[in-house]
TrEMBL record:
Organism in which the protein naturally occurs: Hevea brasiliensis (Para rubber tree)
Domain Rab-GAP TBC: 62-356
Protein name: Rab-GAP TBC domain-containing protein
Sample GO molecular function, one term: GTPase activator activity
Pfam families: RabGAP-TBC
Source organism, top-level taxon: Eukaryota
SUPFAM superfamilies cross-referenced by the UniProt entry: Ypt/Rab-GAP domain of gyp1p
PROSITE patterns: TBC_RABGAP
InterPro entries, alphabetized: Rab-GAP-TBC_dom, Rab-GAP_TBC_sf
Length: 356
């Protein structure tokens, strides 16, 4: 049993030469933090998870690092809390197979994927020419020659190849103070996941900073495919997960195999209001379920604009000034203040909507 106030830093070893790394503010608190024992008791004999009870404990004291990965799989919607142990195992195997297919597809185009290596130099230019960068992996030039010798490359392939070196540049900078990433295999695993994701999600592709979001998945989930799916779900639910948690979230992600499954699955699923996050609870209390409610993002934007309204009115002399002021906000927002303001605006909106 861990003692009250035990720091969690020991679970993420820092390289000895990195002496200026800030200490974690999270402390493991006995009786409040979700422990492995409490996590196990939250499941029924069949494997159904009491998500409401689990969320309540997480809100009080967080999650113990030893179980954080498997808990996140539920919080991010990888698995339905109402599923059984057997159902989850079957789904896990299907997803691992699907990830292996995608990875093999990427490897056929660019064999560095899945090879235990990664790249940081451009693979190809806009003109479909190979990189002449001396730091490129030795085999890269041959790979590019092979690709271009088959004729003009598909637009999707070109776009994907153009992102691979950017992924590599970000990967080598990600959590570099941690001992975990001294192992090149872990860097390669992170690069592979981001490369595969960029291949399958052409709308998002890869954006700088995604490596930082994916990194915890690599550290907490041993299987690469499991880490990929956790990251994929995180990307879907990036916007304000905690405020609008819905116990039916899993149904938004996974289509049932048949209409009968849907009909059967919808029976007897009485929703407890305590299972929802603050945003959804307000919607339910005020009868906003009759039509699709406005997303929390609308109120977040309104909250930020309201907070900066004085600056916009006094300093903006045209559209260019407005754009500049809004750009300056990026990275300087107080998330807690913005969320609090969004909830206040949401409450006012619901009151007015109820009157009309």
């Amino acid at each position: 049993m861990w003692s009250t106030g035990e720091p969690a830093d020991s679970y993420y070893a820092v390289r000895p030469e990195c002496t200026d790394v800030p200490k974690s503010r999270f402390k493991i608190r006995a009786g409040k933090t979700l422990s492995a024992r409490k996590w196990q008791t939250a499941f029924s004999p069949e494997g159904h998870l009491d998500i409401g009870k689990t969320l309540s404990r997480i809100q009080r004291g967080g999650i113990h690092p030893s179980i954080r990965g498997e808990v996140w799989e539920f919080l991010l919607g990888c698995y339905d809390p109402r599923s059984t142990f057997d159902e989850r195992e079957q789904m896990r195997q299907r997803r691992r197979t699907q990830y292996a297919r995608w990875k093999e597809e990427c490897s056929e185009i660019f064999p560095v994927v899945g090879s235990g290596r990664y790249i940081t130099a451009p693979v190809i230019t806009e003109d479909d020419a190979g990189s002449s960068d001396a730091d490129a992996i030795a085999a890269t030039s041959e790979i590019v020659k092979e690709l271009t010798s088959r004729g003009p490359l598909d637009k999707k392939v070109i776009q994907w190849l153009l992102t691979l070196h950017q992924i590599g540049l970000d990967v080598v900078r990600t959590d570099r103070t941690l001992v975990f990433y001294e192992n090149k295999e872990n860097l390669s695993k992170l690069w592979d996941i981001l490369a595969v994701y960029a291949w399958i999600d052409t709308d998002v592709g890869y954006c700088q900073g995604m490596s930082d979001l994916c990194s915890p998945m690599i550290m907490l989930l041993e299987d690469e495919a499991d880490a990929f799916w956790c990251f994929e779900r995180l990307m879907r639910r990036l916007m304000m997960w905690a405020l609008e948690y819905d116990p039916d979230l899993f149904d938004m992600y996974e289509e049932s195999d048949s209409a009968s499954d849907k009909a059967e699955g919808s029976k007897g699923r009485a929703k407890s209001i305590r299972h929802y996050g603050k945003f959804e609870r307000e919607n339910m209390k005020n009868g906003a379920g009759t039509e699709a409610p406005l997303p929390i993002s609308v109120f977040l934007v309104a909250s930020v604009l309201k907070d900066k309204s004085a600056k916009l009115l006094t300093e903006a002399r045209g559209l260019d000034d407005v754009v500049k002021i809004l750009n300056d906000m990026t990275g300087n927002l107080d998330a807690k203040k913005a969320c609090s303001g969004a909830m206040k605006l949401h409450k006012k909106y619901l009151k007015k909507a109820k009157k009309t």
